[in-house]
Amino acid sequence: MASQKLFMLVTLACLLAVTNVITATRDLYIKPGHRLASRLETNEGLVPCWNALLELKSCSNEIVDFFLNGQTDIGPDCCRAITIITHHCWPAMLTSIGFTAEEGNILRGYCDATASVPVTSPPAGSPGPHT
C-alpha cells in the first residue's frame, strides 16, 4: 500500500513538473530580417569576420615579430584582416585569440596609418629595377 502511494506521489510530481515546463515555454518574437541564416549569407554578416580571423592565423608570425621587434612590417593581407576585424566585427574577436585590447588598438592604429599612406610609383622616365 505504501509503495502505491509513493508511486502515485512520484507520478503526480512528474506530471506537475512537465505541465509547468510546457506552460513556461513561449514563442520568441524575432524581428523580421533578424534571422541568423540571412545575416550569415550577406557581406554584412559574420562570414567576413570569421574569414578575417582565419587570415590572421596565417600572419600570426608577422604580428608576433611586430610586437617583439617593433621593426617588422605587417603585410597588406594581414592588415586587411585586422582592419575588417577592428572596424566591422566584434571588438572582442582579437582578444578571443589571445591579443590584449591594447595590442588590438596598436594593430588597428598601425594598419589604419599604413592604409592612409599612398603608394607611389617611380616617375615615368626613371629606370626600372635591374633584372
Structure notes:
It is built from 7 helices and no strands. By secondary structure, the protein is mostly helical. α3 runs antiparallel to α5 and α5 packs across α7. The radius of gyration is 28 Å and the shape is elongated. The N and C termini lie far apart (101 Å).
How do the strands and helices of this protein lay out in sequence?
Layout: H1 2-24, H2 36-41, H3 47-58, H4 60-69, H5 76-88, H6 93-96, H7 101-116
Helix pairs in contact: 3-5, 5-7
The gist of it:
The chain contains 7 helices and no strands. The protein has helices spanning 2-24, 36-41, 47-58, 60-69, 76-88, 93-96, 101-116.
Could you tell me the mean pLDDT? 74
Distance between the termini: 101 Å
Task: Report strand %.
Answer: under 5%
In total, how many beta strands? Answer: 0
Helix content: 55-70%
- Number of helical segments? 7
SSE order: HHHHHHH
Overview features:
single chain, 7 helices, mainly alpha, 0% strand, 131 residues, 64% helix
